[in-house]
Design goal:
The complex is a heterodimer of chains A (350) and B (232).
Chain A: H1 2-7, E1 15-16, H2 23-51, H3 55-72, H4 78-89, H5 94-122, H6 127-170, H7 193-198, H8 237-248, H9 253-265, H10 268-304, H11 315-340
Chain B: H1 2-5, H2 19-34, E1 44-54, E2 60-69, H3 71-84, H4 90-106, E3 112-116, E4 119-120, E5 127-134, E6 137-149, E7 157-161, E8 168-172, E9 179-181, E10 186-191, H5 197-204, E11 224-229
Parallel strand pairs in B: 1-8, 1-9
Antiparallel strand pairs in B: 1-2, 2-6, 3-4, 3-7, 5-6, 7-11, 10-11
The chains are: A mainly alpha (350), B alpha+beta (232).
Chain lengths: 350, 232
């Protein structure tokens, strides 16, 4: 003891790390540390840029923001939960899934930039009040998410109703080439060929030649309901835009903070660049998640194809309704939670 | 628009995915969902510098602290002060802020928990409060008086400094050490926090104006310092 004290006149603390750390402990410690480091680096570089403006520092800021965005991603799962649930339960192409994630992430950044420039720049608000305003955008976002969920449930119901009506009209003997909803289709697949032309979908290329009517030539002479979707427009355009909007209207408060502080320092252009880089990073992370969701959905369908589950006529719309319900619940609980929670008043001010 | 319609979500006839692949991808997905959030607690940080003051008898009598607020939070605090009382000279403004801060922190024991033999000690009113503006950051200095004691092996002392709401993260300045001023044969040992995984994830879900319903959330993320002196 005395020897140690002599060697360390200031009592430098030896840092103890307990040996019995589990894998989960290590992983969460690593996440915590990385988040901490990125947050600090971003803040310090921003102030360094204000003090000694240089191209190098600006580049460092962009890089730090980008990494921060990659790692922190789009909020604690609210946006990510909505996007992945939507993609898991509604048939979307991979490209549209990626665009969905990328655009909602970019919109979150743009919302942050616009909010700060408008409230602080135009209306002269305090940074503190501006950041408090994020709460209202959050509430709006959560409410819109809940409404999106209801909309998706409604679409599922409508699909089922149309399928039933269609089945009644067909009578007891199945019509061979009638498109039907397998696991893949969460929208009504009984659209007429005329509808297809109106909506401007070209016949899909790829395996299986298409008839002009948009039905595959694959042999389905019996009523197999085999889960192979028919190429009737499956992409939900309305809900797709609604998802981008509902998720994107909520700015991430990290972006608002960076933007507000850079405005305060008089380097708001650097703030814009930083926030955009951050959104780009977020877009990448969330896109990876979107790819996984689309893949997982495809895999599930492939796994279920030989099972009787795939023959269920209403499986597609039902899965879509489950997704809608989850999205509704996510939005509604967050809305309720945010509404009832008493805003924190920190003892140090702000 | 039409280009998205191509090959949409079609089931391509092929090999079924293997369980191992599914697992791996599932784990990656779980990580991506879990991996923190830009909105998460904490929103600011304090670099903490501590000096433990010992008297001539070798007894610990005060805990001197210096809180170095992060530059963004420092600027926001100054802007706030300037807005509530515009036109104040810097030193007057800083004096007012010191008073206000220490007054507000009194209720929270200045974010400081001191234990002796696991028993929590009362925290008296802080003295020598001072706020300085140095290198774009606010430095809050104050001293917490303690009942003089010798933290020997029978009665070791430990302290933690943390914001219970975990809005601000307080960690010892990595570029500084814990100063034991006037101490004889004493040692300070710092133990990092080991928050459980679900707590890390939970903190990541807390937004800026949200108060954690978990009492004392910040304690799970706080460093603990143990001070022990040899027998005389």
């Amino acid at each position: 003891m005395p020897a140690l004290a002599a060697a360390n006149p200031f009592g430098t603390p030896p840092v103890a790390e307990s040996p019995e750390w589990t894998l989960v402990d290590r992983a969460s410690a690593w996440i915590l540390q990385t988040q901490r480091d990125l947050h600090r680096r971003l803040t310090l570089v921003l102030h360094e840029l204000d003090e000694t403006p240089a191209v190098r520092t600006a580049a460092a800021l962009i890089l730090a923001s980008f990494l921060y965005g990659v790692f922190h991603a789009a909020g604690p799962g609210h946006g990510k939960a909505v996007i992945s649930t939507y993609l898991l339960t509604h048939r979307q192409s991979l490209a549209r899934g990626i665009w969905l994630s990328a655009l909602s992430s970019l919109m979150q950044g743009v919302t942050a930039i616009v909010a700060v420039l408008l409230l602080i720049g135009v209306f002269g608000w305090l940074a503190r009040d501006t950041m408090g305003q994020v709460r209202n955008l959050e509430l709006a976002s959560f409410l819109l998410v809940a409404l999106l969920g209801l909309w998706l449930i409604g679409r599922g119901l409508r699909s089922i109703w149309r399928l039933r009506r269609d089945a009644r009209q067909r009578g007891p003997f199945p019509v061979p080439v009638q498109p039907r909803a397998g696991l893949g289709d969460s929208v009504s697949s009984v659209a007429s060929p005329a509808f297809l032309r109106v909506s401007g979908n070209p016949p899909a290329r790829g395996s299986g030649a298409m008839l002009p009517s948009g039905r595959e030539t694959r042999d389905q002479g019996h009523d197999c309901g085999c889960g192979t979707p028919h190429h009737v427009n499956p992409n939900l355009r309305g809900p797709w835009y609604a998802t981008v909007f509902a998720v994107g209207i909520r700015p991430c408060s990290g972006a608002v903070l960076v933007m507000a502080v850079s405005y305060l320092l008089g380097i708001w252009l650097a703030g814009v660049a930083a926030v955009l880089a951050m959104s780009l990073g977020t877009a990448i992370t969330v896109s990876v998640l979107a790819i996984l969701a689309v893949q997982a959905r495809d895999w599930t369908r492939r796994l279920l194809r030989p099972t009787p589950l795939a023959t269920l006529r209403y499986a597609g719309p039902l899965v879509g309704m489950v997704g809608g319900t989850v999205i509704f619940l996510v939005g509604w609980t967050l809305f309720q939670g945010t509404l009832t929670v008493e805003p924190l008043r920190h003892p140090l001010g702000l | 628009m039409s280009r998205y319609a191509r090959g949409t979500g079609r089931v391509v006839p092929g090999r079924r995915p293997e369980v191992a692949t599914l697992l791996r991808v599932g784990l990656l997905g779980a990580f991506l969902l879990f991996a923190g959030a830009a909105t998460a607690h904490p929103h600011a940080w304090i670099d903490l510098r501590v000096s433990l003051l010992f008297d001539d008898a070798g007894e610990l009598y005060a805990l001197r602290q210096e809180w170095v607020f992060d530059p963004s939070y420092s600027h926001l605090l100054l802007e706030d002060m300037d807005a509530s009382e515009p036109g104040l000279a810097m030193d007057t403004a800083l004096r007012k802020m010191t008073e206000r801060m220490l007054e507000n922190l009194r209720e929270y024991d200045y974010f400081t928990e001191v234990r002796r033999n696991e028993r929590r000690l009362d925290i008296a009113e802080a003295r020598d409060g001072e706020l300085l503006w140095q290198q774009r950051r606010l430095h809050l200095h104050f001293e917490l008086p303690l009942e003089p004691m010798r933290p020997d092996s029978a009665q070791p002392l430990q302290y933690r400094v943390y914001d219970p709401s975990y809005w601000i993260e307080v960690l010892h300045d990595p570029d500084d050490v814990i100063h034991l001023e006037g101490a004889r044969d004493c040692e300070a040992r710092l133990e990092r926090a080991r928050p459980e995984g679900w707590l890390v994830a939970y903190a990541a879900t807390l937004t800026r104006d949200q108060r954690a319903p978990i009492e004392d959330l910040g304690r799970s993320f706080a460093e603990a310092v143990f001070i022990q002196c040899d027998e005389r």
